[in-house]
Amino acid sequence: MRPFPHIGRRWLAAGVVAILVGAAAVAGLVVSSSRPGNISNPDVEYVATQPPPVEKPKPAKQFSWPLYGYTPARTRYLPLETNGLRPPFGRVWRLGGATLLEFPPVICGQGMFIVKNTGSVYAIRRSDGYLRWTKRLGRLAASSPACGNGTVYATILQTSRGSKRGRVAALKAKTGATRWSRVLPSRSESSPLLFRGRLYFGSEDGRVYALDAKTGSVKWIYRAGGAVKGALAMDGGKLYFGDYAGQVTALDRATGRRVWRSSTGGSGPLGAGEGNLYSTAAVAYGRVFIGSTNGFVYSFSSRTGRLAWRHKTGGYVYSSPAVGPAGGGTVYIGSYDGTFFALDARSGKVRWTRKSGGRISGAAAIFGDIVAYANLGRRSVALVSASTGRLIWSRNNGGFDPGISDGKHLYLQGYSMIQAWQERKR
Length: 426
Hints:
five-stranded antiparallel β-sheet
């Protein structure tokens, strides 16, 4: 779950807001005053790969953003032509509501799919925002679905009121009919990873699952040392994730065997020990990047798990990193103190920052040479230059995550709604 327990769409009522602000202020004070500082190990291997080939906008039937983070490596980077998306933008459609919308949608062709916090999956026609179907899978959810091969996969935190059980389900993309459904012994808010016929995700009791995507049968289970809340990232045949024991783990994708496990170490805020790893890891340049509630952003060798660097921020880091090719490799991530960072992927040094106040809780997304991020505290979303941090465009209707793009449109989400934008003819 995010910084504080999910209690439905009214969790930001006035009294709760006061508590959250106070807690964030205390946490920020502890983070800035009580922990060791930055570390950089320049001799840790770094693979300086070429940027992915530029993607020109595809026809609607062919485009896919099928996973939280776009690719299995969860880098949240859509390679586009320079100046591929620029204001002025005009709104194409808007789909509103009163239900909290925490995680971004996914796209498979003309279908857009999203899981709202009430535990329902929504299927939207991408061209005009028409709501095609909804399917209630439980009482509470906080994840993005995955889509592929005519199927939508979703994880659920609560099957019913008061239940400590979760659910994972596969639905027909056209109709929402259930292909299969599995009740889990523990809650799950780990956005599923779909790859080559298997579905991978974690749960609050520390289990990491590999299921047959067609039938839901279990292929293997790994037991981590703490709750696995974030999604699993995959690269080079290995799965990477953080847990609430403050550990980052790499598993063999085929067998579930542990390849390495590393500790984040250090003292965390408010007695959090090594820090809880809610953040979903991103894998690029032979490194694993992840944030922690102890206020640090980390980079580990993806091959050995050796610590390459850590960088201290001024608050909790629930945000998941986005990684793009600017400057030879840059990591973009937000802190709960309202600062948005661009860090050198090799060394962890600061390239630039934007101090926007409020609280940044969700992940950023990179569309070509621009970066989108949301500020939960200010309920805003901004597009900035990936290389300089210069503001390009902003709106005052943001929330947890900024949203996604297909190269022609921006699908930006607010606290409880999603809007499609496209460039206006000049």
